[in-house]
Structure formats: C-alpha cells, structure tokens
Amino acid sequence: MNRFREGFVEWQERFGGSGVSAGEGLRRAKAAHGVVRADDVRRVAGELGWPVAAVSGTASFYADFAGGGQGRRHVRVCEGTSCFVSTLGRHIDRLEVALGVGRGDRAPDGSVSLQVVHCLGYCYASPAALDGRVPRAGPALDGLLTEATGGARTTRQGIRSELPDVSDGAPPVPYQNASSRAVLLAGLIGEEGAWEAWPEALAAGAERVIAEVGAAGLRGRGGAEFPVTVKWSAAAAGPAPRYVVANGDEGDPGSFCDRLLMEGDPHRVLEGLALAGFAVGAARGVVLVRSEYPAALARMRTAVTEARASGHLGADVHGSGFGFDVEVVEGAGSYVAGEETALLHLLQGLRGSARARPPYPTSRGVGGRPTAVNNVETLAAVPWIVRHGGAAYRRLGLPDEPGTKLVCLSERFRRPGVYEVEFGVPLRLIVEDLGGGLREGRTLRAVQIGGPLGGFLSPAETHVPLSAGALAEAGVALGHGSLVAVDTDVPAGELLRHVWSFAASESCGACVPCRVGSRRGLELAERIAAAPAGQVDAALATQERVAQVMQVGSLCAFGRNVPGSVRSLVRVYRDDLESGAS
C-alpha cells in the first residue's frame, strides 16, 4: 500500500487534480448513510477519475470515515490523558450506559452512536465529549449529554475568560499572559489587532519579513523546534507555484492553545500565514483544522471571508501586486496526520501516513511543489515580530531559545488554562504559581510534558526550566507545551497502559517498527498492570527492547518519540510498577 500510495501521489503531481474533494465526498457519504459504503467509494473514485484503491485506502484510514455506523446523533467522547486522569476512563463507561450504546457502536435504530477519540481540546474542563458539533465538558458529562443542557460557565479568579462562548455546552478556554510582553495573546487581551503588520510588510518587501523573523530566532512551536526562516528560504528557492500551510491539527492530548488561537483570534493566524506566503512567494495558503475542532473550523472559514472582504486577501492585495488567498480544509480524525508529510497526504485525499524524507515538503509538498508547513502557534507570533522587530522578540526568553510559548494546564490544576510565558521560566513556577498547584484533595505524582510523545517528570524534577534543550536533558520533549497533572490516585500500570494504547491506536502503520512495536508495547503494558509485586522485571526488560527497535527503526517522530515517553514514565513510577501498585 505504501508503494501504491507514493506512486499515486506522483500520478497526481503529474496530471493534476486536488485531493480535498475526496475527503469531502466521503464525508457527505458518511453523513447521508451513517457509513461509507462500497458504492460510495466507487462513486467518489469515478467522480475524481481515481483508482478505487486510492479512495478505499482513504476511507479505511481516517476515523471520521471508517469504523461502525454513525447515528443520527453522533457523540465523540475523549479519552485523552487529561480526561483519563480525571476519571480513569470511567466517564466512557457511564456514557455507554447513559446513551444505551457501546463505544464504536451505533444503536440498532440508528438513533445514536458513540465514538472514542483521543483529544477534543477541552483538557482544562475534563472529561469532554462532542455531541454532534456541540461540546460538553465537566464531571457531570453523562448528565449533560442525557439532558442535552449546557454546562456551567465559571470564570476562575485571576484568569481572563473573555473569549466569546463557542457553544452552549462547555466553558471557553481560560487564558492569561504571564510574559513581560504578550506576543501570542496580544490580540486576545486587546493590546493590538490583527492585520496591522500586513500592509507595512507588503510595502517594505518580503526580504524584510524574512530578516525580522530570522533576527527573532523564531523556531517552530509544533514540537520540532526547526528555524522558521530556514524552512521559508528553502521553499522560496524552489520553482513556482509555491504553497504555505497552517497546521491546525493540534492532536496532542493535553494541548488546546491552537484551538484558542483559531477560535479567539483567527485573523492573527491568517495574517501570520499571509506573511509566510509573502516571504515564500506563495500565491496560495491552506489552513488544516482538525475535525474535532468544529468551532475553530467555522471561525477560520468566517475569518477568510472577512479578510477577503477587507482586501487583505485576493488577487492584488492592497494594490501591492502580490496575490494571496487561503483555503480552509477540515481534517478527518488522525493524530499522525499532524506530521507534515502525513498532513500533505491528507490534503491530497490519501491515507495520512508519514513518508520518508528527503524529499522534504519545502521541495516537494502540495501538488509536488515547494511548500512551507508551520503550526498555528508559530504563525501567530509572526505578525508581532514583523511589527515590533526581531530584536524586541529576541529580548524575551533565553539567548539560545528566545521568545514566548503558550503552555496549557489541565483540569487537575486549580487554575487550568492557557498561559503565555517566556522560555526559561521554571516549570515549578508554572505548576505552583500560575496553575496554583492541584485542586483540593489532590496530590501531584507526575507531570506529563508535551503530550504522549513528550514524557513524565516527578514533582521533584519541576525545577527544570521551560526549554527544549533543558527538557531533553531531563529525558522529556517540550512538544506542543502541554502540562497534564497526574495525581496519586492514578495507578502506574493503568497510566502505562494508557500511553501504549494511544500509540497503538494512532500509529499510521506505514512502518513495521511502529505498527508492530506499539501493539506489542500495549500487550506488555497490560501484562505489567496485572502482574503481582516483584514480577514485572522481565516484562519491563522486553518493553525496553521493543522501545529500542521503535526508536531506531521508525519512519517518523511518532514511533521514535513514544519510547522516550515510556522510559520517562518507568523512571518516575518504577517503584510503583515493581511493587504492584498498578
């Protein structure tokens, strides 16, 4: 299948044609019939002039198209880390009873279906679910869904909560600037508006945009920490047409800062994408928004329409002679599709599997053309940098890691939400001062940093500064910048099983080490969780061998980073695992 997929990508690039309509056709079929049928696959393939195998691969890969039938009322319930920690997964059991349907199933009369997903971006109010496109969140989740009433809206002391409500069923994202200067939250706290840097940049030229962002030392905030202008310059050196992509597929359980930006300040994201397009010399931009963020999808599409009407997008932007427009594309339910090569496959209507690099997207991306992919948070920093200058940005944070970062604190904290902080701030300050420690009656046992591919630190290790380099030395990865508090009520073995379950479920299957290793890791985790005291050493040793194979042989960062996360968990919880306190 991998060889076929790559061959078909080359076919697309040679003969043209967009793959976005493949996903749209499958989405319409699922909405109409509750399932994607074989005749739906053949019809979509015929409409596009594609091989049936290409569309069949797409239909079977993405969670939004595959699996059991979808009822007239479709509920997606989260089992991400914050939701898991908040109930040990029992909220899903309660929902099965409340809705009268099992996970992954549809009621016989087609009235309701229940799908389990790994994050909905409501980690600050766990547990959470999407009732159709309406979010519900909070400890009484099953009651909210049974009664179909909105949850209470609470403003926690010391945190701004002025983001307009995005639904009737869940509280908005709390947020606060804790940096000496707000960069990413500047629009949300009212310090400056969007599109203020854009007209001046068009007049000054693309070289100035690249120079200021380069002087700022801005690096990617999606986890890779790659220098932004290196990527832009590589794409700009390629032949036209060129593309820029905003990666809004924020799938890390525990992270919801991109959702905040796309829902609360979408024009800032678009302005950052437009500035990236100007720097690269791209006429087209794409914003990929995960389907689990329906409000963000709607906000981004509305913002594009408004930006066109205001003259910020179009054929001749502000009379500059530069033309740039944006398309917003909905994801289809895949964590790995957030990896840039897998994301490009999604945009071409194919399975969201990672591919070997080189070639890199900067030379062979959308339609085989040079493409720069940046995540939402990265792009949201660009307008501030261009307006205030790279030197002003570099004065924030650390000399070797300048600037600010959005960190997300989960529901177990007294004051959960999104905080903008400077690089170098101690994690302990974030945990204890900003987050206020844990809620009453809870004791901190570990902090998961950077989602399932990041890792775990004990409370004694929170002296580590917020820095990709310092965290790497401590054995964890910064990732998207989420902090999920794990209290002492969470058994070590169940937490280990949760991490491996995520890996096994979300592996794209493109390479054997990750596909087989993640499933083997889950088997071992289940054995460890059930083992009596003193009988886990052999399983832990086998788990380490599996981790070594995954780390060395996996195709992309997903398979290579899961082992580090597992090792950090074992380090923090080893005594618990060996004593059978699982």
Number of alpha- plus pi-helical segments? 22
> Strand tally, please?
14
Strand content: 5-15%
Helix/strand-derived class?
A: alpha/beta
Main beta sheet: 6 strands, mixed
Strand order of the largest sheet: 5-11-10-14-12-13
Percent in helix = 40-55%
Rg over CA atoms, rounded to whole Å, is 23 Å
The coarse overall form would be globular
Q: Could you list the spans in which at least 5 consecutive residues all have pLDDT below 50?
A: 149-167
* First-to-last CA distance: 39 Å
What oligomerization state is this entry in?
single chain
Average pLDDT figure: 90
Can you describe this structure?
The protein has 582 residues and is α/β, with parallel strands linked by helices. Helix 19 packs antiparallel against helix 22. The longest helix has 23 residues. The radius of gyration is 23 Å and the shape is globular.
Could you give a short description of this structure?
The protein is of the alpha/beta class. Helices cover 43% and strands 13% of the residues. A hairpin with a 2-residue loop joins strand 3 and strand 4 (134-137).
Key terms for this structure?
single chain; 6-stranded mixed beta sheet; 582 residues; globular; 13% strand; alpha/beta; 43% helix; 4-stranded mixed beta sheet
SSE layout:
Elements: H1 2-15, H2 20-33, H3 38-48, H4 52-61, E1 73-78, H5 81-87, H6 90-99, E2 112-117, E3 128-131, E4 134-137, H7 141-147, E5 175-177, H8 198-204, H9 206-216, H10 228-236, E6 243-248, H11 257-264, H12 266-280, E7 284-289, H13 294-309, E8 325-330, H14 340-347, E9 371-375, H15 376-388, H16 390-394, E10 404-409, E11 417-422, H17 427-434, E12 444-449, E13 455-457, H18 468-473, E14 482-487, H19 492-506, H20 512-530, H21 537-553, H22 557-579
Parallel strand pairs: 1-2, 5-11, 6-7, 6-9, 7-8, 10-14
Antiparallel strand pairs: 1-3, 3-4, 10-11, 12-13, 12-14
